[in-house]
Amino acid sequence: MQRLILVLMAWLAVSAGQAAAQGAAPPPPSLPAALALVRSTLIAVDQANLTDDYSVLRMLGTPAFVQSNSADFLSQAFRPWRQPGRDFGFVAVAEPRLQSAPAIDERGILRLVGRVPTPNFDLAFDLAYQFVEGRWRVAGILIRPERPQVDAFSLDSLGEVAPPAPRTAEAAPADTPPLPRRHGEASLLARAPGGAIPEDASAAADGAPINAPSRRAEAIPPLPPPRP
């Protein structure tokens, strides 16, 4: 059955034993490196949307992401983004704006949240990465078109980036909140063996059990009007 799904989200949480087996995560990337990582991921998504071939995007993911999402399912999940006016190839030249400096949580997940301006809308993103086999791999993707805004971190507005404040395992990150859930969004949750879904991700499934991937589909909200 065809599903209208605006966003895909596949969060990965690993146990301490799994993290040790893969090796310790490196320090957070610099701001320019983080922006390059965001840009390369979004370009991969846009090219997959243009060609309806999600095999390359899928293989950029962590093992759990690859296992949870077939190329066919990714095609269904991103189908609304193949509609006219929803391409965002402009990210190749636009500078992503992050909500906060790059940081790695206690689970070894690098989370990059922000937006990229395009001619017709701002592309809001919430991307998660895990360091696997010597490089950052995609662990989660959430994208949404939004009306333009200007308040965010960028290379032009930042000099020295202060290190992130210490956080405890009990407290949810305060400096990088998840993109707010809105009517019309849907999500897929993928759980790695022995892992657990973060609280903010499990909440996206509207209380559905996390023992198996959870999917839901709703109407797609209209794009914001083009910029004058």
TrEMBL record:
Keyword entries, A-Z: Signal
Top-level taxon of the source organism: Bacteria
Descriptive protein name: DUF4864 domain-containing protein
Residue ranges, annotated region (Disordered): 161-228
Keyword Signal: yes
Leader sequence residues: 1-19
Organism: Prosthecomicrobium pneumaticum
